[in-house]
Design brief:
single chain; about 700 residues; alpha/beta; Rossmann fold; six-stranded mixed β-sheet; four-stranded antiparallel β-sheet; 24 helices; 10 strands; ABC-type heme transporter activity
C-alpha cells in the first residue's frame, strides 16, 4: 500500500490529522523548519569565509577537495535536498495548492542551477557579476509563485497562511543574498578583502549615518520621516496599480457591472506615481523636501572634514607635499605599466558589464516567455486565471525588468561611491597628532614670557633636528634666530606655535607648559608674519580683518595706518574694497607684507613671530617694512627668524643655530666681539652688500 492511500484512509477515519486546524499547525511547523534550515545552510559558506579560503587555495582548479570546498558544495546540496523533501510534503498534504507547488519547483530548479554553476565560479573567480547574476535569478524565480494569484485570496482563505510563509521566506532569501554580497563580494572579485569596496559596509554605514540624520534640526528630521513615508507610499502604489489594472480588465469583460470608481482610483494613483522613478506628484514633493536634507549632509560633512584637516599636525601636511623628486621618479617608471593595466582593466570592465546585461536580458526574456505561456495555459485550459491575471503578470514582470536592466550600472556607481567614501573616512580617521589634553585650560592674560628647557625634536625617529636647546625670553624682549638653511630655525618657530609636539623637554609660556593650554587660546595670543603671506581672492578689508573677524572697519583702518599701508590703499580707486587677486597677485611683495603686518596688529597678540618676513624684499622696501616690524614688536615679546642680519641688530638676544644646536648666543655687539660664526656671517653679508652697491654704481 502506498503512502498516499494510507493518508487518505487516515483522513477518512479521522485518525490523523484530526482536522483542518491540526493540518495548519503541522504545515506551520514543517514550513518553519525548512525556512530556518534554508536560512542557516545558505549562511554556511560565508561563515568562516570559506569562499575566500577556497579562492586563495592554489589548488582550486584541480580536483583537490579542501574543507572549504566540501562545506560549500554540501551547503548547496543541502538546499537542493530540502527543496525535494518539502516538495514531497506539499504533494502529499496540499495536492491542490498551486502556490506551494510553484514555489517548491522554482526553488528546486534554482538550486540545481546553482549547483551546476558552482564549479565554474570555483575555477574562475572573477568579478561580483556571478553573484549579481545569482541574485537576479533568485529574485525572478522567487517571484514565479506570484502567478498563482487566485490562490492568494480565495473564499475559504485556506492558503493565506501559506502565502504568509512564502513572503517570509522571500524576505529571508533576499536578506541572505544581501549579506552574501556584503560579506562575500570580495571573494568573487578576485581581490583581497582589504581591497574590497564593500568590505566593512556596516562600519561605513554607521560612520555616515550621523551626517544623514540631521540631529541639529527637528524640522529636518520631520522632513526625513515624511520623505520615507512618501517613498513607502510610492512603492505601495507601484504594487497597487497592476492590481487595479487587473480589476479594470476583468470588469470590462462584463461591461454591465463596471465600477467607474476603479477607473478614478487608478487615474489618481497614476497621478501620484507618475512615470515610475521620475515624475509624479509624490516624487516631486519628496525631491523638494529632500533638498535641505541633502544640503545639510553636504555642509556637515565638508565642515567636519575641513575642521579635521586643520586639526592634523604639520607633520601630516608636510608628508603630503606634491612635486617631490622620488614621487616623480616613481610615477615616471610606472606610467607605461599604468597605461597598459588601464587598457586591460577597461576592457575587462566593459566586457563584464556587457555580459551582465546580456544575462539579465536572457533571464527576463526567458521569464517573460515561460511565465506568459504558463498564465495563458491557466486561462485557456485550466480556467483558473482571468485576462486580468495576464495583465497583472506582465505588469509586475516589466516593473521587475526596469531596475534589473540598470543593475550593472548601479552596482558600478555604488562601488565607486563606497571607494570614495572609504577614502574620505580613511582621511577623517587619520589620527590627530597634536591635540588638547583633557585638562587643558584656556590661555588668557598673557604676561609675555617664554621659557624653552632642554628642547629636542625629531621628525623621524633617531634623527633629531633640534638638540637640547634652552633659552628664555622676558616680557617685551626680542630674540633673533639666525643660522644657515636647515639649522632648525623654522622648526623652532613651529614648536613654539605648537604645530608639533616636542620629543623631549618643554616649552613654557608664562611659566606653564604649552600642552596645558588649549591650542586655540594659545594661538590667539600669537601673531605670525610669514615670508610668504597668504592672501585670499577678496578685498583688502577682508584680508586685514582675517586677523580678527569681529573687528570694525575703523579698527581695520587703524591697523592699516600702523602698518603704513593706509595711504596706498586710499589711493586705489576702490580703496579698501579693492580685490587683491588670487594669493594677492595684484599687490607687490612689500604691500603684501604690510597687509600681513596690519592683520597681525589687528589681532593684538602678546607674542610676535617673524619668519624671514623681509628676506624676499629689496633693500628700500625692507627698510620700510623693518620700521613697521619694530613698531609691531614694541612692548610685545618677539621671536625673529632672520636671513639678513641687518634686521636683527637691535634684538635683545641673538641665537646662532647650526644643525639643531645653539653655537653662540648674545647681543649683536657681543657676538661681533667673539669673532665667531656670527661675526663671519656678518662680514660676508657686509661684503656682499658693498659689492652690489659698487655694481649698481657702475651701471649708473
Amino acid at each position: 500500500m502506498g503512502f498516499s492511500p494510507f493518508l487518505d484512509e487516515c483522513r477518512a477515519e479521522g485518525i490523523w490529522p484530526v482536522g483542518p486546524s491540526c493540518n495548519k499547525i503541522i504545515s506551520f511547523g514543517v514550513y518553519s523548519f525548512f525556512i530556518v534550515v534554508n536560512f542557516i545552510v545558505l549562511c554556511i559558506p560565508n561563515t568562516g569565509n570559506h569562499y575566500q579560503q577556497m579562492i586563495d587555495d592554489e589548488g582550486r582548479t584541480t580536483s583537490k577537495l579542501t574543507m572549504s570546498k566540501i562545506l560549500s558544495i554540501c551547503s548547496l546540496f543541502a538546499v537542493i535536498c530540502q527543496s525535494i523533501f518539502y516538495f514531497c510534503f506539499v504533494f502529499y498534504f496540499h495536492p491542490y495548492t498551486h502556490l506551494l507547488l510553484a514555489f517548491c519547483l522554482s526553488k528546486l530548479f534554482f538550486w540545481i542551477f546553482c549547483m551546476c554553476s558552482f564549479s565554474k565560479w570555483r575555477n574562475q573567480p572573477s568579478t561580483p557579476i556571478s553573484l549579481a547574476f545569482a541574485f537576479s535569478a533568485a529574485l525572478l524565480i522567487d517571484c514565479i509563485p506570484l502567478t498563482a494569484w487566485k490562490t492568494y485570496f480565495d473564499g475559504a482563505g485556506q492558503n493565506r497562511g501559506d502565502v504568509t510563509f512564502y513572503l517570509i521566506e522571500l524576505a529571508l532569501v533576499t536578506a541572505v543574498f544581501f549579506f552574501a554580497i556584503v560579506a562575500g563580494c570580495s571573494n568573487f572579485s578576485g581581490f583581497s578583502s582589504r581591497e574590497s569596496a564593500w568590505n566593512n559596509l556596516s562600519k561605513k554605514v554607521v560612520m555616515v549615518a550621523p551626517y544623514i540624520w540631521p540631529t541639529k534640526s527637528i524640522t529636518l528630521q520631520l522632513r526625513v520621516v515624511f520623505c520615507l513615508f512618501l517613498l513607502i507610499a510610492g512603492r505601495l502604489i507601484n504594487v497597487s496599480l497592476p492590481i487595479l489594472s487587473k480589476w479594470i480588465v476583468d470588469e470590462l469583460s462584463t461591461p454591465d457591472s463596471f465600477h467607474y470608481s476603479l477607473l478614478f482610483l487608478a487615474t489618481f494613483l497614476k497621478f501620484l506615481q507618475g512615470n515610475g522613478a521620475m515624475g509624479g506628484f509624490l516624487n516631486t514633493v519628496r525631491t523638494y523636501l529632500w533638498i535641505p536634507i541633502q544640503q545639510y549632509t553636504t555642509r556637515e560633512l565638508e565642515v567636519e572634514l575641513f575642521k579635521h584637516l586643520h586639526s592634523l599636525s604639520l607633520r601630516w601636511h608636510l608628508s603630503r607635499k606634491t612635486g617631490q623628486v622620488l614621487r616623480v621618479m616613481d610615477r615616471g617608471t610606472s606610467s607605461v605599466n599604468n597605461i597598459l593595466n588601464y587598457q586591460v582593466t577597461e576592457w575587462k570592465t566593459q566586457a563584464s558589464l556587457a555580459f551582465l546585461n546580456c544575462l539579465q536580458n536572457a533571464i527576463i526574456g526567458i521569464g517573460m516567455i515561460g511565465g506568459s505561456v504558463f498564465v495563458v495555459y491557466m486561462i485557456v485550459h485550466e480556467k483558473t486565471l482571468t485576462v486580468g491575471d495576464y495583465v497583472l503578470f506582465t505588469t509586475y514582470l516589466l516593473q521587475l525588468y526596469t531596475p534589473l536592466n540598470f543593475f550593472g550600472t548601479i552596482y558600478r556607481v555604488i562601488q565607486k561611491a563606497f571607494v570614495d567614501m572609504e577614502n574620505m573616512f580613511d582621511l577623517m580617521n587619520d589620527e590627530v597628532e597634536v591635540k588638547d589634553l583633557p585638562h587643558a585650560l584656556p590661555y588668557s592674560d598673557a604676561k609675555g614670557t617664554i621659557s624653552v628647557k632642554n628642547l629636542t625634536f625629531e621628525y623621524n625617529t633617531g634623527l633629531p633636528v633640534i638638540k637640547n636647546i634652552s633659552f628664555e625670553i622676558g616680557n617685551g624682549q626680542t630674540v633673533a634666530l639666525v643660522g644657515s638653511s636647515g639649522s632648525g630655525k623654522s622648526t623652532l618657530i613651529r614648536l613654539l606655535f605648537r604645530l608639533f609636539e616636542s620629543t623631549e623637554g618643554s616649552i613654557e609660556f608664562d611659566g606653564t607648559d604649552v600642552r596645558n593650554y588649549t591650542m586655540h587660546s594659545l594661538r590667539q595670543q600669537i601673531g605670525i608674519v610669514p615670508q610668504d603671506t597668504v592672501l585670499f581672492n577678496d578685498t583688502i578689508m577682508y584680508n586685514i580683518r582675517f586677523g580678527r573677524p569681529d573687528a570694525s572697519d575703523e579698527e581695520v583702518i587703524e591697523a592699516a595706518k600702523a602698518a603704513m599701508i593706509h595711504d596706498k590703499i586710499s589711493s586705489l580707486p576702490e580703496g579698501y574694497e579693492t580685490m587683491v587677486g588670487e594669493r594677492g597677485l595684484k599687490l607687490s611683495g612689500g604691500e603684501k607684507q604690510r597687509v600681513a603686518i596690519a592683520r597681525t596688529i589687528l589681532k593684538k597678540p602678546q607674542f610676535i613671530f617673524l619668519d624671514e618676513a623681509t628676506s624676499a624684499l629689496d633693500t628700500p622696501t625692507e627698510r620700510a617694512i623693518q620700521k613697521c616690524l619694530e613698531k609691531l614688536c614694541k612692548s610685545r615679546t618677539g621671536v625673529v627668524v632672520a636671513h639678513r642680519l641687518s634686521t636683527v641688530v637691535n634684538a635683545d638676544l641673538i641665537l646662532v643655530l647650526d644643525k639643531g644646536i645653539i653655537l653662540e648666543r648674545g647681543t649683536h655687539k657681543d657676538l661681533l666681539a667673539q669673532k665667531g660664526v656670527y661675526a663671519s656671517m656678518w662680514e660676508a653679508q657686509i661684503a656682499e652688500q658693498r659689492a652690489k652697491s659698487i655694481e649698481l654704481g657702475e651701471d649708473v
